[in-house]
Design goal:
Blueprint: H1 17-26, H2 31-41, H3 45-49, E1 56-57, E2 69-73, E3 81-85, H4 88-100, H5 116-122, H6 126-145, H7 153-164, H8 169-176, H9 181-190
Antiparallel strand pairs: 1-2, 2-3
């Protein structure tokens, strides 16, 4: 009977600041913005790729109690969406994306596609296109920059940095959209 053991990663799942900076130095758009948003919010890659203009709520900075956030649809829950709160830098990135985007999706760049008409007839899901393109660009940036991390490591990095900054573990688990605090604790264990 074969022995199936879980493969243990030899590297940390938390992205160091130096690795993040090197990656962002080599990354092109939209990968740079997507990875920045993922590290700052803990959102999953597909959640960022699926962001639409109407999902982003940018609040006026004059009111201390108001906070910008993103609405992420939640399945099988009493709430229709979860709020992912945004810092000023991420809110600025998303605001710029809203102003520049010519489609409902924030990270779908029509200028990078040679034939939009062909694309719309052949692909029914623009989120899948953005997601696949992100992974292709991510592999290229890893090769050029010499760093190594998985896109889901951005979630672990967010969780670890938020915990180090003194955030409550329940708040972090809710921001990540995890059903259980145990998932968040697994992130910390892998760090």
């Amino acid at each position: 009977m074969p022995n199936y053991k879980r493969k243990v990663l030899k590297r940390s799942r938390v992205i160091s600041t130096a690795t993040e900076e090197r990656y962002l130095l080599f990354a092109r758009q939209p990968s740079r913005d997507i990875v920045t948003v993922m590290i700052a919010t803990g959102m999953r890659p597909k959640e960022v790729c699926a962001l639409r203009k109407e999902d982003v709520v940018i609040q006026n900075a004059s009111n201390e109690l108001s906070q910008s956030f993103v609405k992420i649809p939640v399945q099988m829950s009493l709430e229709p969406y979860r709020k992912v709160y945004l810092g000023d830098s991420v809110a600025a990135i998303l605001q710029a994306r809203i102003e520049q985007s010519t489609t409902p999706y924030l990270f779908l760049d029509l200028s990078s596609m040679k034939r939009w008409v062909f694309y719309t007839k052949s692909v029914k899901n623009p989120v899948a296109y953005i997601y696949n393109r992100l992974h292709d660009q991510h592999r290229l940036v890893l090769a050029e920059s010499g760093v190594d991390f998985d896109l889901f490591d951005c979630r672990c990095t967010f969780a670890f940095r938020a915990f180090e900054a003194g955030e409550d573990h329940m708040f972090i688990a809710n921001m990540l959209g995890d059903k259980s605090v145990n998932t968040f604790l697994n992130y910390l264990e892998q760090a």
